[in-house]
Design brief:
Blueprint: E1 3-8, H1 15-28, E2 32-38, H2 52-62, E3 66-70, H3 72-75, H4 79-93, E4 98-103, H5 109-118, H6 125-134, H7 139-153, H8 166-180, E5 186-191, H9 210-218, H10 233-244, H11 256-265, H12 268-271, H13 281-289, H14 297-304, H15 311-323, H16 332-336, E6 342-348, H17 349-361, E7 366-367, H18 376-389, H19 402-405, E8 409-411
Parallel strand pairs: 1-2, 1-4, 2-3, 4-5, 6-7, 6-8
Antiparallel strand pairs: 3-6
Binding site for ATP: 7-20, 102, 167, 192
Keywords: ATP-binding, Cytoplasm, Ligase, Nucleotide-binding, RNA-binding, tRNA processing, tRNA-binding
Organism: Cohnella hongkongensis
Length: 416
């Protein structure tokens, strides 16, 4: 059985995602789709609108056969480690033949060429990157600038690679990860249509970015009805159910109290021990706390934001503090080791057959509960799920143990 892997967040799953899913099967001629999906906290350092179980169900009803979790150790990282973790999960599964990701151009050749140049971080590239990081550029900007300079030194046209486009950069890191892992997975790319990554305005009657949809829903006059034209019926129904149950919509302000509790009890030196806290950010955090007009995460982000400290960087930093993630837990050496388990979030009847195959072929243990495997990364996932449950309207202690007590989401073929 041929199987295509996709990397998703589905926050929430919308018509553009549905197009990508369907086209991924078409262009790879795959029979099955395996999605590796971020859990409750996402790449930009934001909490997911709905929890990973709800978004897993969205994925299965849209046509995914098997959904695997991208550990929180990787899911809230810059593109380099986010991509590496996702590819590590797909490669370790032993059942994924191809990868299909979205890009602005839909052209793979130039990205493949650049990936072959950068996969081993050549001696000429490393100092270019280090110099830009020393200037205070955030990693994505530093990487792009260094890559463009490296291409010029090689006599290549940096404009041909479109590295200022976010999907191109992420796609490049997928390709680099494939090479670093020595993976046999064959990559494909699909041109992103009608709505750009992170586009905040809606310019089409059926396609809108997840960012624009969240902005619409979380606005003062936002409602689920306003999303109807842009998401599958199944997504809308799941969001309605989760909203009625008090488990959605979740956003940063949902964690205001636990976050400020943690910030107020930490000294500047102790803050410096958390992952993502660098370049004196610990002193800036302590310095602005007493100047805030209210205990608001948005107010804190606005007070902290500078050219050096972008919003995304700050969100990731605050998330690591909220979740208690220390630098030692997320060192480059530990991240480079890859995953030591695969967590199954959900499957259909077809996916169950694929799962049986995966259990025989996977390079690491396949687990369905946080209680079934001893791993520092899996423990971090379970702890993150517990913290996320604090945002539920009627949170119960049992909600914090969902990773231990609830089985994977399972849908029969008739339900999809």
């Amino acid at each position: 059985m041929s199987t295509v892997g996709i990397v998703v967040e589905y926050n929430p799953l919308h018509n553009g995602h549905l197009y990508h899913l369907q086209q991924s099967k078409k262009i790879t001629q795959a029979e099955n789709v395996v999605a590796v999906m971020s859990g409750n906290f996402l790449q930009r350092g934001e909490p997911a609108l709905a929890d990973k179980r709800a978004r897993t169900e969205m994925a299965l009803r849209a046509g995914c056969d098997l959904v695997l979790e991208l550990p929180v150790a990787y899911s809230s990282q810059p593109a380099q480690w986010f991509a590496y973790g996702a590819i590590a999960v797909l490669d370790a599964s032993g059942v994924v033949d191809s990868l299909c990701f979205g890009s602005e151009s839909g052209e793979l050749a130039s990205l493949q060429q650049l990936a072959s140049l950068l996969a081993e971080e050549p001696e000429a590239f490393s100092p270019l990157l280090a110099a830009r990081l020393k200037e205070g550029l955030p990693y994505p900007s530093a990487f792009t600038s260094a890559a463009e300079a490296y291409l010029r030194e090689k006599g290549l046209d940096e404009h041909a690679y479109s590295l200022t486009q976010p999907n191109h950069t992420l796609g490049l890191h997928y390709l680099i990860a494939l090479r670093k892992l020595g993976s046999a997975i064959v990559p494909y790319t699909l041109r992103r249509e009608k709505s750009g990554y992170g586009q905040t305005e809606i310019t089409d009657t059926k396609i809108a970015s997840a960012t624009a949809l969240r902005k619409l829903l979380l606005g003062e006059s936002g409602s689920l009805d306003q999303l109807a034209a842009y998401v599958p019926e199944s997504t809308l129904a799941i969001l309605r159910r989760e909203t009625q149950a008090g488990r959605a919509p979740i956003h940063w302000e949902s964690f205001s109290r636990p976050l400020f509790h943690e910030l107020l009890r930490q000294s500047a030196p102790s803050l410096s021990e958390f992952a993502e806290v660098s370049e004196g950010l610990e002193y800036r955090i302590r310095g602005v706390l007493s100047e805030l007009p209210e205990y608001s995460v948005e107010a804190l982000l606005q007070a902290l934001k500078t050219k050096r400290y972008t919003r995304t960087k700050l969100q990731r930093t605050l998330l690591r503090i909220l979740l208690g993630h220390r630098k030692a837990q997320l060192s480059p050496e530990r991240l480079a080791d890859g995953v030591d388990y695969i967590r199954v979030l959900g499957f259909t009847s077809r996916g169950q057959r694929l799962l049986r195959d995966m259990r025989r072929k996977a390079k690491v243990p396949v687990v369905s509960s946080a209680a079934r495997h001893d791993s520092s990364f899996l423990a971090m996932d379970a702890q993150a799920a517990g913290v996320y449950s604090l945002a539920f309207r009627d949170a119960q202690p049992s909600d914090a143990l969902r990773d231990f007590t609830l089985p994977p989401v399972r849908l029969s073929d008739k339900m999809v």
